[in-house]
Amino acid sequence: MVVLAVTWVAKVGQEAEVAEVLAKLTAEARKEPGCAMFQVHRHRTEPRRFFIYEQYKDDAALEAHRNTPHFLQYARKDLPKIADRVEGQLYDPLG
To answer: Which of 33, 47, 54, 74 has its CA 20 to 30 A from that of 7?
Structure first.
């Protein structure tokens, strides 16, 4: 299992657009055979801040995700126009 934690911050006034793009990305990512979980969260007091928690079966599944048409469109093309990716960390579960 591989876990990826990503934080995006919407540009001022772009919060709704970021939420829309992340909803589309979520719907498609959840269809991937190697994706165990893809959940987007919105910060309670900072509405421009979005956190994505992703789980993949293994490194190959994560790499496959990064090469899908929906990832390339939403995460590589659309989101950078309306948000800044401020953090992305990979984790391995203990035990």
So the answer is: 33
